């Protein structure tokens, strides 16, 4: 803060008079000095302002302060000048202003019919070009090719030997279950199985997807649903290595053929649902079956394995309705509870179809639901065939 301000604050009655002070760079300008009765000069050279003495050291401090203030103002002015210089357009970067010099061209007095045009020699402006050279034909193959040196030939031959890769025979096609990925194995349709289908736990749902073949299934699949598609054939590789598979549902497809051993390796299979297809021959099934549904197909008796159901000690439901069967496929396991054979071509029953002809006391207690209706069969004529049953079969009388 300027010293004069301090004086005004400390002693309002004092009068400030300007005086010149000399500094290192010349005159610093007016320095306000207090005067009057309230500011007598003391014998020691100090100035007393309202009882406060101002010594020579304080004066020097004021001089230094004023010098620093002046330097600050000068620096500020230099900075403003520099800013104005940088912001102003550079004359060297812009086009020169002014009107073109018309005297140098004198367009108004220019005479196009002067003799200078008649005596003008075109050849002085450059060498003339011989256009006859363009008629020369370029002969192809007249230049002998460069003969490579023996060293370069050996190097090229060695390089070709390094680049030559022996051709290997194609690997056999097999399903890779070692690295199925996050969404199951690849289907060959551009996406994994679990993106084409829905995978929840061990169940894979591929219903109504329009596929015409069974996709590769994850190794831990327990239930597969491929209903209402366009599958025509079931291959023996479709369920390869699926040791946990318990249920297969291909209802509503166009299956007309299956490989003989397609189900043989499925040791945990319990349900096979193949209704509404075009099946004529049923392949061998594992003995672990509990439910078999072959309704609305084209099965005939010689398309079933002889005694194919005998060893299925856990079979409970057997649906064979709406086929072309001529007789009941026997022998039937004792575990069977439901047998549907309606809408076939069965015309007769044997005494041992359901009972044991050698044991008159034999009773088939589990078989409670037998359907024989819509067959050319009168069940009243074959009473000995179902005397061992707890309930009479449903059929025509």
Automatic annotation (TrEMBL):
Keywords: Disulfide bond, Extracellular matrix, Glycoprotein, Leucine-rich repeat, Repeat, Secreted, Signal. It comes from the Eukaryota. Residues 16-37 are annotated as: Disordered. Pfam families: LRR_8. One of its GO terms (biological process) is articular cartilage development. Residues 193-223 form the LRRNT domain. It is found in: Secreted, Extracellular space, Extracellular matrix. PROSITE patterns: LRR. One of its GO terms (cellular component) is extracellular matrix. Its main location: secreted. Belongs to the small leucine-rich proteoglycan (SLRP) family. SLRP class III subfamily. This is Opticin. It comes from Seriola dumerili.
